[in-house]
## 1
Amino acid sequence: MTTDAQSQAVTDGFDLVIDALKLNGIDTIFGLPGIPITDLTRRAQAAGMRVISFRHEQNAGNAAAIAGFMTQKPGICLTVSAPGFLNGLTALANATTNCFPMILVSGSSEREIVDLQQGDYEEMDQLAIARPLAKAAFRVLHAEDIGVGIARSIRAAVSGRPGGVYLDLPAKLFAQTMDAEAGKRSLIKVVDPAPRQIPAQDAVQRALAMLKTAKRPLIVLGKGAAYAQADADIRALVEKTGIPYLPMSMAKGLLPDTHEQSAAAARSYVLPEADVVMLIGARLNWLLSHGKGKTWGGKDHKAWGGQKFIQIDISPQEADSNVRIDAPVVGDIGSCVSAMLGGISAMGANWPQPSADWLGAVAERKSKNIAKMAETLARNPTPMNFHSALNVMRDIIKANPDAILVNEGANALDFTRSIVDMQKPRKRLDVGTWGVMGIGMGFAVAAAVVSGQPVIAIEGDSAFGFSGMEVETICRYNLPVCVVVFNNNGVYCGTDVNPTGGPDVAPTVFVKGARYDKLIEAFGGVGVHATTPAELRKAVEEAVRSRKPTLVNAVIDETAGTESGRITSLNPTSAKKK
Ligand code: FYN
Ligand code: ADP
């Protein structure tokens, strides 16, 4: 707030944006300064907000998105116009796809010039470009409308199915002034931004009746269940019914992965064998083979088919997206699970536990896979492979249940998912629905900023490359992040060769023996080159203890790994070489 010549208190666009965010309990901005929002970053910091500056807007956007997933409040990503806005779009689209609440706020060119295409500095019709990729998109032209613009963006991001929202702020808006009192009155503190959505009783009864008569029931927990923060009720529903459950990757830890009802180690068995599958905050998309056909387990697994599906979801349109949903329960997961529990309690002791045959079959399949995995993990090859390195990481995550695990890559992702058990909810943050590379450092920064907990980022060497420059950001804010790069010299692995014998290396290989650990040393962080499990263990344990920004270059056998990890079939390869 400033005072003009008539000594009447005035406010301006900068302060109205800041006051509107703070009024709604938003205290952090992830962004990158530049025209026309540099002063907004300065003023926001001066007003007591945390302003975390990145090196590329995509990483700031990913940080905002995962902050939204972790807190149920929209993460704010602030970018410059045109190219900075475009850099943020991948993260906005990814947030919308993953149902993460975030708001991409970008400075922009003036409407009158853009609409006449008169060639402004960074001229672009950003609102039109953002709309298809966002859950909602708004533009504010007048200072007195900033309160409404921020309020609408917050409500759009977190109400119903959460998602990414775009808010367009043309440069001239920031310098607009208005009476301070009127400005204050124009701001809106959003009341109940994510209202509970209570399921219909008949829908709950229909679902319970189906679950009760199931011979081989299965519960699938998706990242929507993790986001809902209804942890105790979700655990109670699983344990009261005794039904085996399958956690999708970002739902791991809702119940400890070591829980006796976890069917994760029998995934390809339980999915086609179950006769009733209850989806809680999980979509029947590619990750669940669209509820039909072959699971990812490969050739010898039975195809899905003929199951009955119960789907608990806040989106009424999600049902029947791939196969018929026999019992849709529409509402927020907290309300739906609580209603289900109420219905089960009303039945008293009459709730039937699943048959011993079913539980026995699941347990048998699970123990077979666990034994097979244990055998693999016990090997200690030189150089390390994914399994021997992850045997170390598994122990360290187990010893630090409050630490947050960020994970991306192909083999580095798939092997970590099945080897590293999670014990608490919202502690595994990964590539999500799109399987997108590049989320690593943005997620790691946000996880450390939001939680204050140690963050361990297990990165494929290719995946790390997308956001690796942010190790400077990690050092600049002295964040307790330990990045472990699984370095096998290339995308998937490092053995491809150029068939022509020409000077260019194969498209999938990197510099052999690259020393990623040297990168963080340039910014004062701790770099460690680890060639054995013992060296890896020592480096990561020290990083967690010291909370110093650390990058461990873990040397992995360059022949280890398959094309695209567990989803090789999605990456058509040319006919086998002669
Ligand atoms: C799982 N498994 C285990 C365990 N956990 N065995 C022993 N112990 C434990 N703890 C078994 C599980 O039963 C499966 O064996 C196998 O390990 C794999 O388990 P996973 O990973 O849970 O299952 P699957 O089939 O891979 O899941 C399909 C998928 C998953 C599509 C959901 O692959 C996935 O989320 N992929 C993401 C891919 C991605 O986004 N990549 C990023 C870009 S890649 P079986 O039951 O015997 O089959 C760029 O190239
Ligand atoms: P996963 O990839 O883990 O299977 P998805 O992202 O496919 O999870 O599915 C998440 C689902 O959860 C989405 O359909 C979304 O509508 C739903 N969802 C997200 N938050 C809530 C909530 N609070 N209550 C109910 N459903 C939710």
Note: The first strand starts at residue 2 and ends at 3.
## 2
Amino acid sequence: MLSSKKVSLTTILTCILGVTWFAQAQAAVDVQAVYKQHCSECHSLDRLGGNGPALLPQNLKRLRKKSAFDVIKNGRVASQMLPFREKINDEEIKALVELIYTPLKEVPVWGMEQIKASQIVTHKSGELPDTPKFKADIWNLFMVVELGDHHATLLNGDTFEPIHRLPTRFALHGGPKWAENGRYIYFASRDGWISKFDVFNLAYVAEIRAGINTRNLAVSHDGRYVIVANYLPHTLTILDARNLSPIKVLEVKDSEGKSSRVSAVYTADPRNSFVAALKDIPEIWEINYSDDPPPGFAGWEHSYHPEAGDLVKSDPFPVRRIELDSFLDDFLMNQEYTQVIGTSREGKGQVVDLDVGRALYDMDISGMPHLSSGITWTYQGKPVLATPDMKHGLVSIVDMQSWKTIKKIKTKGPGFFMRSHENSPYAWVDVFFGPNKDLMHVIDKQTLEIVKTLKPAPGKTSAHVEFTKDGKYAIVSIWDPDGAIVIYDANTLKEVKRLPMKKPSGKYNVHNKLTRSSGTSH
Ligand code: DHE
């Protein structure tokens, strides 16, 4: 009893001191000027986010003020947030923390009306020819995103010659998604712009701003719908894939009305569903996009309608909500699309069975695995999952039956992306963070040993690999303003060709993405 009183007194004192500590900071500092100079480039002047996330109390619910102070001062692992300790003093950081936890006078509304008003249609559906303007095997095309000057390059995967270079919206994030056998590709930018590019005609056909701060997009396997996962507002936006007209804005809320950012959304082809994980509510949402959702599914329906109230049975895109014990920040699905394998940033791993509708297993995995970059293959007759770790120099190999980590492969530093191909004996993983960022490990999928470590461009980050359609070549990005893509023979591991590019990030092969290869993200 006595000790609990002591604890509560201490807690109260800490809170009072903490509040005073932060509140005092604001008075002396011209915080708006500090914000403008150091933060606005990535987070935008109005704090609505751009390259970096929106800095609003709604978006920072899971970050304490003291942690925010630490992030500004020392940077954040696994993100582009740099340390500012050399540029901003402690008083200024305190004032910045106070600022970003202050709600905007007016929270911008980004609903159906605003989304619709942002739509730009340059070519109506069916207007452009159905034959490509160039000669190439469409199934072996790559789209290479160049973050350096916000462009993308369409690359011939047989000759490794660029076909076309196109401007993109500012700061694309997540994989662009191919559709309709490589005819179209959809891009998402961090500030919510979705762009549809007609690859055959080398022209954008439509664009729309589906959110203010967006995570990623997914395209239904039948090519009819695009769904966009947003951090701000807390919504999932469903678009007609033909011209990106908005069809539905799903407000992401739990049964008590608490809203949440969306971690990511993917397509689960055999289920005719999109699957989304939420960042602030421990739930997974499965959104059915078939014209006739299965009867069992309809019973789960909880579509939220601001005007009509919830639970509208004949509603398109019914939502099935699966409640979990903890949040999912990062996830992938198994090849059969029956399980969601996810972790929170704190590292709690869980395996959710989508048919049963609940988490069935805890995954024994430590560190900060990057599951959206995880890949799977068969090892000693069993499926295994391999994932890099964004905090530690290791790759975890997890048995997908027992969900135990069977090996931790020591690497030269924390990694971000991991890739392989059904026809390749190797899995490639980068060392994205730390002094060895210019290394790329090649792992033998059957011995689980690193067999070679490449250094494609000494001193420059080498990251993200994608294979050609047949798995014979692997392409590495030199993630630098003065960068390149380097093409390797995937068996001899010898360099074949190098093309200069401006900070190339991800590369996306039509075949590997559309056949949902187990060696790449979907
Ligand atoms: Fe990404 C994909 C989350 C930071 C480059 N990243 C993804 C996906 C998720 C994700 C959920 C899968 C979506 C998809 O492909 O549809 N990324 C996160 C984060 O939570 C994190 C750590 C923090 C954040 O600020 O969002 C983060 N990501 C980054 C970066 O800092 C990177 C390196 C540079 C950038 O562009 O912002 C980066 N992420 C990428 C890339 C992909 C990606 C290139 C697509 C990989 C692929 O092959 O599909």
Note: The two ends are 54 Å apart (CA to CA).
